[in-house]
Specification:
Residues 1-7 have low confidence and may be disordered. The chain has a domain at 15-91 and 169-198 and 340-368: Nucleotidyltransferase, domain 5 (2-Layer Sandwich), CATH 3.30.420.40. A five-stranded mixed sheet has the order 3-2-1-4-8. The protein contains eleven helices and 15 strands. The protein is of the alpha/beta class and 370 residues long. The chain starts with 14 loop residues before the first strand and ends with a helix. Bound molecules: adenosine-5'-triphosphate (ATP) and magnesium ion. Magnesium ion binds at residues 22, 212, 309, 357.
Length: 370
């Protein structure tokens, strides 16, 4: 168990949980509402590696029963002291299919009929096997002022974000909550959870980079609306593997080295930076392609990059990202939206980015309690 605090506040009347089942660890955040503010009761993280015979920080692909064991272990953990079972659960972006499609401008009722038909083209499995949702992306009030020629010709069409979840995925998550005796009333794709905990009413496009263990997720958000999403099949685990392989050290030692020294280590005369950059430069160059494509399509620059996920805790990563993006780069501060004791300020800033999804889920459940 990595981070925890307990019993900091007198017992809240109604607390809620946000649960993020990542590939390397489960993150759990318990919030309650006091005087109209979201207050942090407790939070914790449980590494899943040991449930798969692997080390802490290592990615896993666990069967449902092991995940249930892990959640139950976490709910029992006295140090974390989770008291609520009322929750929401995040679903990984990798389990979803998402696309922004263009449709001719038409009546809402017509769209409701046409979108599922159109969506078939973008969903590689039979439509009967998925649960489909969509969202019409509002038009810019004044797109001509800054849009590219392509964007101008697109004005007579509308953009629709389609989101599909495989029914098997939904059943899997239902089984997890039922067997863990959790009271979940929603599953939410992690992107939307992160957006809730990270965004701050920014007007200009923002790129959120979630640096997980197995994969890196990229989301471009403009005026609070998801405009583009991508997944890169490289994550912080690749950095550990590279360090282990190149330096001839165990995965556990490599994981420790990565967390301890980040980009600033020198081992056997080799700078960790040179090895870590093999992964980072790939990830950031892919991210730059996404930014450029967005710029080309909509004529707008990404004005800020926000890093979240455990991989963003890597020492020195912000500087590398700044060089790569030539724009403002910050690490996300999801706990910034909740009230927490002052003495935790530093630890919450440091570990916060890893909890962006879990905080976002808990914030939604708290809103739904009103
Ligand atoms: N201080 C640190 N420095 C460098 N890397 C770190 C640090 N803390 C955690 N990590 C890395 O972050 C990764 C875990 O991040 P996170 O918890 O966001 O992933 P996850 O949600 O389990 O994975 P995914 O989102 O890919 O399913 C691990 O690879 C871990 O080694
Ligand atoms: Mg994750």
């Amino acid at each position: 168990m990595a981070n925890f605090l307990s019993n900091l506040f007198s017992h809240p009347s109604q607390s809620v949980l946000g649960i993020d089942i990542g590939s390397s660890s489960i993150k759990l955040v318990q919030l309650s509402k006091k005087n109209g503010h979201a207050v942090l009761d407790t939070y914790g993280e449980l590494a899943l590696g040991p449930y798969a015979g692997k080390g802490v920080g290592e990615a896993t692909n666990l069967p449902v029963d092991k995940i249930i064991d892990a959640i139950n272990d976490m709910l029992k953990e006295k140090e974390v002291n989770i008291t609520s079972r009322i929750c929401g659960v995040a679903i990984p972006f990798s389990s979803s299919l998402m696309s922004v499609i263009e449709m001719p401008l038409m009546q809402k009722t017509q769209l409701d009929q046409m979108i599922p038909i159109e969506a078939r083209k973008y969903i590689p499995v039979p439509i009967s096997e998925v649960t489909l949702d969509w969202y019409i992306i509002p038009k810019d009030k004044n797109p001509e002022s800054e849009a590219s020629p392509e964007a101008k010709t697109a004005i007579k069409t509308i953009e629709v974000l389609i989101v599909a979840l495989h029914n098997d995925t939904i059943s899997r998550y239902k089984e997890i909550v039922t067997k863990s005796a959790l009271d979940a009333n929603f599953f939410e794709i992690e992107i939307f959870s992160t957006m809730r905990s990270i965004l701050d009413q920014e007007i200009t496009p923002i790129l959120i980079i979630d640096m997980g263990a197995t994969s890196t997720k990229l989301y471009i958000v403009e005026k609070g609306i998801l405009r583009s999403s991508h997944m890169i099949n490289r994550g912080s685990q690749n950095i550990t593997d590279e360090l282990s392989k190149s330096l001839g050290i165990s995965v556990t030692d490599a994981e420790y080295l990565k967390r301890e020294k980040g980009l600033g280590g020198v081992i056997k005369g080799i700078e960790t930076k040179s090895l870590i950059n093999l992964t980072l430069s790939y990830v950031f160059s892919e991210a730059n392609h996404v930014v450029l494509a967005y710029q080309k399509k909509y004529g707008k620059n990404v004005s800020k990059v926000v890093l979240v996920g455990g991989g963003s805790a890597l020492k020195g990563v912000v500087d590398i990202a700044k060089e790569s993006f030539q724009t403002e780069v910050v690490t996300g501060d999801p706990f910034g939206k909740v009230v927490a004791p002052a003495f935790l300020e530093k630890v919450l800033k440091d570990t916060g980015p890893e909890f962006a999804v879990a905080v976002g889920v808990a914030l939604r459940r708290l809103q739904e309690m009103e």
